[in-house]
Amino acid sequence: MRYTISGKHIDVGDALSTHVKSEMGETLEKYSQRPTDAAVTFSKDAHQFLCDATVHLSSGMTVAARGSATDIYAAFEACREKMDKQLRRYKRRLKDHHKDHAEPVVFGQADSYVLAPEDDDAESQGGSLEPIIIAEMESRVPTLSVGDAVMHMELSGSPLLVFRNEKHGGVNVVHRRDDGNVGWIDPRGNG
Question: 7, 18, 99, 146: which sits with the fewest CB atoms below 10 Å from its CB?
């Protein structure tokens, strides 16, 4: 497994790097034997140390967690414990993920755009109502069941996930609602 351990305006020494590799490796070994790479980034916010970890699994899933504490090692441990809890929650599904699928998760490509905020003066001066595109990117859109999409969204820590529904091939969205529940949008409609 490849590790990328870095710090934002912090020097990450050999001792911390060794600690991160051994502890993270131990956590991932319990739940998934196929992680491909892990990125762990340390930063400082006032008196708090922050640790952000992202692990990519060979199944196409991404697991992300964040921890904070006044000590850099404690920040990593908080992050690792959150990741451990996420992986423990989905352990059975992670291990059984490929039993139902002969092929690993299929990802399609989709264009993704970042739009500039609307300028109120442009509209009043006779400007165009078309938004200004300030960035173009490619995004990966997985083909999943709704249950797997919710699992992917929660493991990655994202507020939403766009996916292609494996039952009918249509584009769907699962998202975290303000009330804490998960919403599912299927624009296919029934009538």
Answer: 99
pLDDT (0 to 100) of residue 187: 86
Q: Tell me the two tokens of residue 2.
A: 């490849």
160-175, pLDDT tens digit by residue?
889 989 888 889 999 9
pTM of the model: 0.63
pLDDT for 27-55, tens place per residue? 888 876 577 788 999 999 989 999 999 98
CATH classification of the domain holding 48: 3.30.160.100
Q: Is the CB of residue 153 less than 8 Å from the CB of residue 176?
A: yes
CB atoms within 10 A of CB 1: 14
| Cα(64)–Cα(82) distance, integer angstroms | 9
Start-to-end C-alpha separation, the chain? 49
| Token pair 């529904």: residue | 165
